[in-house]
Amino acid sequence: MGSFLDDDEVTRTVSDAPPTHYTVKVQSFSLLLKNSIDKYESGEFEAGGYKWKLMLYPSGNTKKNVTDHISVYIAMSDTSSLQLGWEVYAVFRLFMLDQNRDKYFILEDGTGKEKRFHALKLEWGFDRFISLKVFNDASNGYLLEDTCAFGAEVFVRKERRKGKGECLSMIKDAPTTKYLWRIENFSNLDKECYDSSVFIAGDQKWKIQLYPKGRQRGSGSHISLYLALADPTTTPPGSKIHADLTMRILDQIQARHYSGKADYWFSETNKERGWARYISFSYLNLSGSGRIVKDVCLVEAEVTVHGISSPMQCNQVYIIFINLFVLTRKPVSNPFN
Q: Out of the domains of life, which is the source (predicted)?
């Protein structure tokens, strides 16, 4: 939650004009405290093509360790229809009515810089909008007959342009999937490469690839063994899948399995991970090893998908909304502390 804490960065002015976008009138203000209403959210209002709401903390935002001031924020509302990766730049003013003088005190960022609202940053405002001591003093006019009024103006600079990024989604307590491939007539395998049936792990389709005569630097001396995406064309361009993998040739006699472990980011262009020299022919066929029994070899894949990184893109158009309402205002001394 954003805030302005440095008095040098806060501009305080006074105006005869009410807020142009939204006003919240609170009657029986003391009942908010009596009924332990720590936060009040206003109804939605529209400004600059977006929906907003006021957030009032009548006894201070305790999450920010504020206890002696009223906290007030502006927040974006109903952002579900916005494109992934949206950002909205806006300047805003927050108002409070002085009922004795029929004038509005206004707080805004003194630097004049717009604030960036996005999915992880929906609120900006003032932790210490006004001290409770000053607010409760009837001579100041902010709280009369247990009634007060706050308001807001929001002026949006909406910047949209094509930009690229990615969203990494990690999987909590990711499940592990085991798949067993039974290869019969192993000694008669004569193709360059064999694929297992497709199996599912982490909502992705996988297969085991076996090169019985070896591949690359393992050619002629070792079998080559890989885990591969079964259909990498279904993976969106730019997406990556992080997985831990264990590949085993099972010992069918003494359960002394032969294993290899790795982790890898799989993608459309990097669709497989494994070993060109997984196990030598001589070691695979070692008498009594149990790796080949009755010309059957059992190959097991153990796969855990820990995360998926997906591309995101937002189309942006640069638009500036100009306030045509002219405020008559003048600098004032700090009445808020």
A: Eukaryota
Q: Are strands 22-27 and 297-314 parallel, antiparallel or unpaired?
A: unpaired
pTM comes to: 0.51
The radius of gyration of the chain's CA atoms, rounded to the nearest angstrom, is 33
180: β partners: 300
Q: Tell me which residues of the chain have a pLDDT lower than 50.
A: 1-6, 161-162, 313-337
Kind plus residue range of the DSSP H or E element containing 281: helix 281-284
Q: 3-state class of 33 per DSSP? A: helix
106 contact partners, CB below 8 Å, separation of at least 6: 12, 13, 14, 15, 93, 94, 95, 329
Contacts of 260 (CB under 8 A, 6+ apart): 225, 246, 247, 248, 274, 275, 278
What is the per-residue DSSP string for 4-21? ---GGGEEEEEESSPPSS
The three-point CA angle 274-277-280 to 5° equals 135
In tens, the pLDDT along 23-48 reads 999 998 988 888 788 999 998 999 98
> To which H or E segment does residue 91 belong?
strand 87-98
Residue 23 and residue 18: Cα distance in Å, rounded?
8
Nearest to 235 by CA among 204, 261, 194, 192: 204
Nearest to 89 by CA among 11, 155, 153, 45: 155
Q: With contact defined as beta carbons under 8 Å apart, do 279 and 223 qualify? A: yes
143-167: string of b/e by CB count within 10 Å (b at 16+)? Answer: beeeebbbbbbbbbbbbbeeeeeee
